[in-house]
Design a protein that fits this description.
about 350 residues; 7-stranded mixed β-sheet; two-stranded antiparallel sheet; about 15% strand
Length: about 350
């Protein structure tokens, strides 16, 4: 907490940083939910904290966001000398890359506010801008899993965990980031619980029907084998496996197809794809099982058999180890409800 926050008692100033790359849904959603504590009087006790939320940016006035919707920047960062919490909303990366050095004024302001005690947060891909400050170097963070490879290549000094919903780093636990898309719900609920109390966070969650992503983000991630490795023999094996992963002894059959020695094949496969052949087969089978659980009413035992496992108990254990959820729980979470069919 900054000294300025202490002077304001139980009121915390929240700066929502808007830049043209921002997605309007995340920015507006965070604004409404955090503002609700004060605007709608969701105070569990008279002493509960409230948040003074402002949309801030480099220039006051209308700002066209990447979504194509303008938003009003209420205050210029040049006029903000202290703030308690800064949140950078999610971005939509153009051409699947992040162009650095476009917002030097915002970067310097973020560094200065951090030095003065501010909590620095990002939602989803907003971590790309925060990582540019250098504050996350040598620390852990999370980002939308679709952007994980790009982030790792752009900021190799930051350890990225795209499967995690929320990552809290820093000596003061002052560097906070949330993972994919709607996990900004977890970020906001965490901040409300931390500064206004768990009861207030529960009431906000109830009011907006928000849920914590307690199973993590692994269930949402889709396995895509690495194909751009340049090993033609392994690529050919992967292409065959994409339609034959359910066959008995799939790894042995793949090796026969390649005409390479077993040790040579396994070594080259791991070097090219980053995982062992058996792990690759398992991931393909689990992905097929996920689609069947999402789109059909087929029993779990039959799905197990169809993807290549005669032992349904082993399949259930493997599925949970891979996705973080039991097959039945996964189906309940991701299948289309009857009223929507």
């Amino acid at each position: 907490m900054s000294n300025d926050a202490a002077r304001r008692g139980n009121s915390y100033h929240v700066s929502l940083l808007a830049v043209p790359d921002a997605v309007v849904s995340t920015l507006a959603g965070i604004y409404d939910v955090m503002n609700s504590v004060a605007v709608m009087g969701i105070n569990s006790t008279a002493s509960s904290a409230v948040f003074q939320v402002e949309i801030v940016g480099e220039v006051v006035g209308p700002l066209d966001l990447v979504s194509g919707v303008p938003i009003q920047v209420q205050r210029a960062i040049t006029g903000i000398t202290t703030t308690d919490i800064i949140i950078v909303p999610s971005f939509l990366l153009r051409a699947d890359c992040w162009e650095q050095n476009r917002y030097p004024q915002s970067i310097q302001w973020l560094r200065t506010m951090h030095e003065r005690g501010a909590i620095i947060c990002s939602a989803c891909s907003g971590i790309f801008l925060l990582a540019e400050t250098g504050l996350f170097d040598g620390k852990e963070a999370t980002v939308h899993f679709n952007y994980a490879a790009i982030f790792a290549a752009t900021y190799p000094a930051v350890t990225i965990h795209p499967e995690r919903v929320l990552v809290i780093s820093g000596l003061r636990e002052e560097l906070i980031c949330s993972g994919a898309s709607m996990s900004w719900h977890d970020l906001v609920l965490y901040l409300i619980a931390r500064f206004a109390g768990a009861t207030t966070a529960q009431e906000v969650a109830r009011l907006f029907a928000l849920q914590w992503h307690q199973d993590g983000l692994t269930p949402y991630m889709i396995f895509e084998g690495k194909l751009d490795h340049g090993d033609a023999e392994i690529y050919s094996a992967q292409q065959w496996l994409s339609t034959h992963f359910s066959v008995v002894n799939a790894v042995d059959e793949m090796i026969k197809q390649s005409r390479l020695a077993e040790r040579t094949f396994k070594r080259r496969f791991a070097a090219a794809t980053g995982i062992t052949p058996i792990a690759y087969v398992q991931r393909l089978r689990i992905e097929d099982a996920k689609r069947r659980l999402e789109r059909t009413n087929t029993s779990i035992d039959e799905i197990s058999w169809r993807v290549g496992y005669e032992d349904a108990a082993f399949f259930r254990r493997l599925f949970k180890r891979t996705t973080g959820m039991a097959p039945s729980a996964y189906r309940k979470r991701f299948c289309i409800p009857e009223f929507a069919r």
